[in-house]
Amino acid sequence: MNPLSRSIANQRGQAIPLVLMTFGAVAAMTAYMLDTSRIAITANEVQAAADVTAAAGARALMLGRDHLADAKALVTKNLIDNSLPSAVNLEALEAGNWSSEGVFTPNLFPLNAVRSQVFYTVDNILIGSVTKNAAHEQSRVTKQAIGAFKGAGSGRATLPIVLGECKFPKDCFEDSCLPVVTQVPDPADNSAWTGFFGQASTAAMQPFFPPGCGGNAVGYGAEVKVGDYINLTNGQLPLLNNVKCLLENLKETNHIIPIVPCKSQYNQQEKVLGFATVVIDEVRSSGSPKGIWLHAIFKVTQPGPSGGGNFGTGSIALVQ
Q: Please, are residues 147 and 54 in contact by the beta-carbon 8 Å criterion?
């Protein structure tokens, strides 16, 4: 046997350990990739659970309900890793204040937001068995979310009236601090009629009422969004009778109205800053004083996008 053949023969047994090492490395890498992928999917599910509980908690908070109970009830209905988590997985739920600067402070009044933290422990099916390391057998996934009240960014105004923003306290999140306004429209009360995108005249505004009260619109009102410029006018117009009809004949008391900057006179275009929900208490269309007596109410279930100022009407949005 020549020297070269003898050398090759002596190396045949060395290939087996190399193959085994390569196989082990590939198996470990495959296990790591599979478990990592599973953890990533689970992380998305944990985030979804955090989002749901934060939103539910914040909505309950705004409606005067037990935000912790509502969040616990929801966390047990969201599948994580193909199983239903328990309320124990809701690691933290804090009520607090979400500021206009985007900062959440626990237990700071006024309470307008809830921060939720959810965790889940994932069993690493493959990598723990491959590495034989107990520390690799489980992974803990933790996610958090913040749900907060946000002013409505658009709405269908059902009354051709606006109020000025100065009537609304900055940090009001309940009925007790929302305004009562008398003799609307009245410059002293910072209120006015609006023709929305048309002229602010009696003839142009009357169609915004329902047919039963002098209008001709099937779906009365107007679609308006924050940032729109609408036309305003002041004075006690004959439209007071149309509003009185809404209250007395159609029994329609609750209405969405736009909020605009406060001015000494309202005879021009103004920018929509947000929306409020108002209740008509009384309409005096004759005698003195004339006008509409109304009060604003808190409404946290307004559909549509957020983006307006806080005038008591909006919805819960995930802010983080």
A: yes
User: What are the tokens at 299?
Assistant: 């409404």
Q: Which two tokens stand for residue 103?
A: 């900062």
Is residue 103 within 8 A of residue 110, CB to CB? The reply is: no
Tokens 């037990």 correspond to 66
pLDDT in tens, 240-254: 999 999 999 999 999
Task: Say which residues have a Cβ less than 8 Å from residue 256's Cβ, sequence separation at least 6.
Answer: 155, 156, 157, 158, 159, 221, 275, 276, 277, 302, 313
First to last CA, the chain: 76
Q: Which stretches of the chain score pLDDT less than 50?
A: 4, 19-20, 23, 130-131, 134-135
Pick the closest to residue 195 from 205, 208, 209, 203 (CA basis). 205
Q: Which residues contact 131 (CB under 8 A, 6 or more apart)?
A: 28, 31
For 125, the 3-state DSSP assignment is coil
The pLDDT value recorded for residue 14 is 58
Of residues 179, 253, 246, the one with CA closest to residue 214: 246
Query: Cα(55)–Cα(315) distance, rounded to whole angstroms?
Result: 10
pLDDT tens column, 193-212: 999 999 999 999 998 998 88
Residue 42 to residue 95: CA distance in whole angstroms: 26
Structure tokens at 228: 């729109």
- Give yes or no for a cis peptide into 110 (omega within 30° of 0): yes
* pTM summary value: 0.82
List all residues 6 or more positions away from 117 whose beta carbon is below 8 Å from its beta carbon.
50, 90, 91, 92, 93, 142, 143, 144
How many Å apart are CA 289 and CA 191, to the nearest integer?
15
d(CA 193, CA 6): 105
The Cα–Cα gap between 232 and 194 comes to: 4
